[in-house]
Design a protein that fits this description.
The protein is mainly beta. Helix content is 4%, strand content 35%. It has one helix at 91-96, and strands spanning 9-10, 22-23, 35-40, 49-55, 59-65, 70-77, 101-106, 113-118, 123-127, 136-138. Strand 9 and strand 10 (136-138) form a beta hairpin. The longest helix is centred in the middle third of the chain and has 6 residues, at 91-96.
């Protein structure tokens, strides 16, 4: 579950307790802005359960459930891009930092590929293996993108 304060929680729905079995904290990578979407995905080794989240703070994060803690690693930081092909972000955008992530989804057959929709109206094609830049950027929305599939 992603929360508005940037926390992610994991619940075991088989248990009667309504307490989370894992919860992010400031020490364990709590995000700074709302978490808009989470998606479960098997890790490459298949040993641990893991899920991914996207947040308004501009990060796509992988969360791994280990024996007694929730571990995280930032997969991608959503850099701001210009409004047209090849354009640089305006100076105000550059000062703002990262683009706000609003939604994401993994490719149905290539689990290292995913799309991210941003609050700025862009959709970015990304790879978990190559996180320094976008594979492609689709511009065409003037408002936030709330769903990709």
């Amino acid at each position: 579950v992603g929360l508005y304060d940037g926390t992610v929680m994991v619940f075991d729905v088989r248990q009667k307790s309504n307490r989370p079995i894992f919860q992010s904290t400031i020490k364990t990578g709590k995000l700074t802005d709302p978490v808009w979407e989470v998606r479960w995905q098997e890790d490459e080794m298949g040993k641990n359960l893991s899920f991914f989240s996207v947040s308004s703070d501009g990060r796509v994060t992988c969360w791994t459930l280990s024996k007694n803690e929730l571990q995280y690693s930032n997969i991608l930081e959503l850099r701001l891009v210009g409004n047209s092909e090849g354009a640089e972000p305006d100076p105000e955008q550059a000062l703002a930092g990262l683009a706000g992530g609003a939604c994401f989804d993994f490719h149905p057959f290539s689990d290292h590929l995913f799309l991210v929709g941003t609050e700025e109206g862009n959709i970015h094609k990304c790879s978990k293996a190559y996180n320094l830049q976008y594979m492609a950027t689709y511009v065409g929305h003037y408002m936030a993108v709330y769903k990709v599939a």
